[in-house]
Amino acid sequence: MISRRVLFLGAPGAGKGTQAQRICAEDSLAHLSTGDLLRAAVKAGTDAGKRAQSAMESGGLVQDDILFDVLFDRLSEVSDAFVLDGFPRNLSQAEELADRLNRSNLSLDVVIDLDVPEEALIRRLTGRRICKLCGSNFHQEWAPTAVEGVCDHCGGDTYQRADDDEATARHRLSVYQKETEPLKRYYEGLGLLVTVNGDQSIDRVTNDIREVLLGEVSGESKHG
Ligand code: AP5
Ligand code: MG
Fold first, then answer.
1. Which of 211, 217, 222 has the alpha carbon at shortest distance from 19?
2. How far apart are CA 44 and CA 149, in angstroms?
3. Residues paired with residue 223 on neighbouring β-strands, in sequence order
4. Per-residue model confidence as pLDDT tens digits over 50-99
5. Of all protein residues, whose CA lies closest to atom 53 belonging to ligand 1?
6. Could you give the CA distance from residue 76 to residue 57 in angstroms, rounded to a whole number?
7. CB 64, CB 96: distance < 8 Å
8. For residues 54 and 94, what is the distance between their CA atoms, to the nearest angstrom?
9. What pLDDT was estimated at residue 2?
C-alpha cells in the first residue's frame, strides 16, 4: 500500500463509512469518522457531545472547535496510517488539518472523492439501517437484514439514524454542496484529488479505491 494518509470526501451517503471500514480492515489503517466520534460523544454526554447534538440533529455542521477537540487527539495517535472520513468539511478545517500534520512533518497522500448522483444518495440515506452493537450497515431495499430490525452479524437491534429522514438528508446534501464541495478544488490545486465513481457495486468501488491507494491511478483524475 503506497498511500497511508488518506482522506475520503463525498456527500452524505456516498459510501465513505462503508468503504473506509473495508479498506481499514484489510490494510491496517485507522478509520477516523468524525460523525462516529461525534455520535459517541453525544451518547456519552460529554461537553463536546452536548454542544454538537443540535447541529447534528438538524443536519448542519458542528462548530470547528468541537471537531478539533474530538479529532486531533485521536489523529495524533495514528497519524502515520489513517483514513479520515467526514473531515474536513470546510476550508478552515482543511487548513487546520494541513497545519497539524505539517507540525509532525506529515502530509496527506491522497484525497478520494466518491462521486454519486443526488437521488441515489437520498435512497441510500433514507433506507440505511445500522446495528446498535457492532455498527454494521444494512439497507432496507438492497441489503436488508434477514429478520427485520435484527443484525445478521451479531443479533443486535438495528436503528435508523436520526438525521436520515428525507428532509434532514436533503438539508445535509445542501450543506455539503455549499460548505464541503469547494474542497474538491482546494485538493485538486494541491494535486491530491482523485475522483472515484461511487455509483457502482460496493465491491467495485472498493476495488477502484484500492487501485488508487496502490498508486495505479494518480491525482487529478477520474476513476471507475
Ligand atoms: P457523518 O456521520 O459523517 O455523516 P455524512 O457525511 O452525512 O455521511 P454518512 O455517514 O451519512 O454517509 P457515508 O458516506 O458514510 O455513507 P455510508 O457508507 O454509511 O456526519 C454526521 C453529522 O455529524 C453531520 O451532518 C454533522 O452534523 C456532523 N459532522 C461530522 N463531521 C463533521 C465535520 N467535519 N464538521 C462539522 N460537522 C461534522 O453509506 C450509506 C448507505 O448506502 C448505507 O446503507 C450503505 O450500505 C449504502 N451504500 C454504500 N455504498 C453503496 C453502494 N456502492 N451501492 C449501494 N449502496 C451503498
Ligand atoms: Mg458515514
1. 211
2. 24
3. 196
4. 999 999 999 999 999 999 999 998 999 998 899 999 999 999 999 999 99
5. 202
6. 28
7. yes
8. 23
9. 79
What is the pTM for the complete model shown? 0.95
The three grid cell numbers given for residue 125, joined into one nine-digit string: 440515506
CA angle 66, 68, 70 (to 5 degrees): 70
Q: What percent of the chain has pLDDT over 90?
A: 89
When the pLDDT of each residue in the chain is averaged and rounded to a whole number, the result is 94
Q: Output the pLDDT for position 218.
A: 65
Residues with CB under 6 A from ligand 1: 10, 12-18, 33-35, 38, 55-56, 59-62, 67, 86-89, 93, 124-125, 128, 137, 139, 143, 163, 172, 198, 201-202, 205
Q: What is the pLDDT of residue 221?
A: 57
Query: What residue has cell string 464541503?
Result: 180
3-state secondary structure of 68: helix
> Residue 27: what pLDDT?
87
Other C-beta atoms lying within 10 Å of the C-beta of residue 129: 21
CA distance readout (Å), 95 to 5, 58, 74, 87, 197 = 16, 26, 18, 11, 26
- pLDDT range class, residue 217, cuts 50, 70, 90: confident
Q: 83-101: buried (b, 16+ CB within 10 Å) or exposed (e) per residue?
A: bbbbbbbbeebbebbbebb
According to DSSP, the residues that pair with 7 across neighbouring strands are 84, 111
